[in-house]
Design brief:
144 residues, 2 strands, two-stranded antiparallel sheet, mainly alpha
């Protein structure tokens, strides 16, 4: 459903959000280990998220990545759009270029509801809402 890059971006943002709640900054190595991703790959993703102002970074010995108050209010949909674009919310379920209301693909009407439900769920899910679940280990960001 999401690209591998988007999956890592979502996991990284959730991880950094959890670390940021106490004002901490997190380095690339810790993020990569915490979400089970290749370090070089997550570095590129974090750069892109930083360029799009979804995550903050600070250089130096006490530096790292963190989320400010605005970043903690970021929705999962914001992250998906920043990495994969909004095609997942508007594109054809079969990947056709010509799919529309006037010229629908075979699954157009069914997929329209799925796209809307997914958009609504991701739009309403804010990063700061997941901290307690992650802290209590009710949810996870890394395969065990």
């Amino acid at each position: 459903m999401f690209s591998k890059t988007c999956e890592y971006a979502l996991r990284a943002m959730l991880f950094v959000g959890q670390k940021s709640k106490d004002g901490n900054k997190t380095g690339i190595r810790e993020i990569a280990e915490g979400i089970d991703s290749p370090e070089y790959f997550i570095a590129k993703i974090l750069q892109e998220l930083s360029r799009k102002h979804l995550i903050q970074s600070q250089k130096g010995p006490a530096g790292g990545f963190y989320l400010d108050k605005r970043g903690m209010e970021c929705s999962l949909a914001d992250i998906v759009k920043a990495i994969d674009g909004d095609t997942i919310f508007s594109g054809c379920g079969l990947g056709l270029k010509e799919c529309s209301e006037k010229k629908p693909c075979p699954i157009h009407n069914s997929f329209k509801k799925i796209r809307k439900d997914m958009h609504d769920m991701l739009q309403s899910a804010k990063l700061n809402e997941f901290n307690e679940q992650l802290e209590k280990k009710l949810t996870f960001l890394k395969r065990v």
